[in-house]
Each structure stands twice: as C-alpha cells, then as structure tokens.
C-alpha cells in the first residue's frame, strides 16, 4: 500500500501550454510585440523556475509594472487553464493507489480551480485530501501544508510519496519526511533536488509506486 500527494500544474494536468498562452497575451496587452519574445523560452522559464520568476524576468526586461502584468495574466489564465487536460495515465494511477488501499491527496499553489478541473474530469472522487492556495499555509518547499495533509489523512510517512514536477515539490517532500518522485515529462529539470525517483511518464510513476 502506498499513498500519493500530488502537485497539480505540470503534474496531474498539463496546464503549462495554457499558462504560456496567457503569459503571451498579457505581454501583448502590456505593449510588448510578439516579435520580442519567444513562447518556448517562456515555457522553459516556467518549467525550470516558476511563474513568479518568469514575471519578474519579463517585467524587468520590458519595463512593465509587475502588479499590472499579474492582473493581466490572471485575467487571461482563468479561462485558458480551463482548457487543460490530465496527463495520459493519470486516472489509472490514481485508481491503482486506491485499489491497493492507499489514498491520494492534492497539494497545489493554484486556487480551487484545480479542484474544479479534477471534478470536470471525474477525478475529484479519487482524492481524500485537498490543499489549495485558498488555505493559509506557507508555500512549498515549506512542509506545513504537506504535514497538514499527512496528519489530516492519517498517512504513514514511510509509505507516502510527494509527486511533483519541480524541485520545490521534492524539497517539500524531503522536509516532511516522505518519499519523493520528480515528474519530468520533457526531460527539462537539471537541478532536481535529489528526489528518490525521477519519472517521465505516468507509466513510470505507476511502476515506482505499485
């Protein structure tokens, strides 16, 4: 039996393409021509670092007010991200965790939109614990939110995995004393944070936690 605590963006759902589209639209709305930026570079910045780091970089480069840009981005992203779909194999892995007597939890910096998307794809029922940005926990890699889920869901740390697509997910898992899997579907993360395992597909994740 294993338990899994899942990140959302870039782990359960492939939201990054829609985040990049929103980012590009926000740049355009703030007067930056698309000849001056490259969507692939924005994607790499988001994947390797974070959305926040990308905002800092591009707002500085194009002299854009950060708060104004963030408002533009969030306005576009709200609709764009609703087009995102789960990665191939998500449903099967979540079901297998439950089938072996384990539990799934969600730990995301996104708001309750993440739960809405899970519900839209009939996946919410496969989770027994949720932490979103609506709660007042410190952000990953601080283990506060992960510890809350572990305690609230009554999980054994030795049989629990934190699974996410960035180093901060791995660090949060280490800080909470659970096993870690870095999900890197595009082989992009160089500084991995010393995870217990690295997986590039949900087939690989399934083999690691079966």
Automatic annotation (TrEMBL):
Pfam families: HAD_2 (PF13419). InterPro entries: HAD-like_hydrolase_sf, HAD-like_sf, HAD-SF_hydro_IA, HAD_2, HAD_sf, PGP-like_dom2. The keyword DNA-binding does not apply. GO terms for molecular function: phosphoglycolate phosphatase activity. Keywords: Hydrolase. One of its GO terms (biological process) is DNA repair. One of its GO terms (cellular component) is cytosol. This is HAD-IA family hydrolase. It comes from Fructilactobacillus fructivorans.
């Amino acid at each position: 039996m294993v338990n899994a605590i899942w990140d959302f963006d870039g782990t359960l759902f492939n939201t990054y393409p829609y985040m990049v589209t929103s980012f590009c639209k926000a740049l355009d709305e703030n007067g930056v021509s698309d000849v001056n930026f490259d969507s692939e570079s924005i994607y790499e910045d988001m994947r390797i670092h974070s959305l926040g780091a990308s905002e800092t970089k591009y707002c500085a480069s194009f002299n854009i007010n950060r708060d104004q840009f963030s408002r533009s981005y969030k306005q576009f992203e709200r609709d764009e991200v609703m087009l995102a779909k789960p990665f191939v194999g998500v449903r099967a892995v979540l079901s297998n965790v439950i089938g072996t007597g384990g539990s799934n939890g969600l730990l995301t910096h996104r708001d309750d939109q993440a739960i809405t998307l899970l519900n839209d794809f009939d996946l919410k029922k496969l989770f027994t614990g949720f932490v979103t940005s609506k709660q007042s926990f410190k952000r990953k890699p601080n283990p506060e939110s992960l510890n809350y889920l572990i305690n609230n869901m009554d999980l054994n740390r030795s049989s629990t995995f934190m699974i996410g697509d960035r180093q901060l997910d791995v660090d949060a898992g280490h800080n909470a004393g659970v096993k870690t899997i870095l999900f890197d579907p595009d082989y992009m993360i160089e500084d991995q944070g010393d995870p217990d395992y690295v997986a590039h597909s949900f087939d690989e994740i399934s083999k690691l936690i079966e």
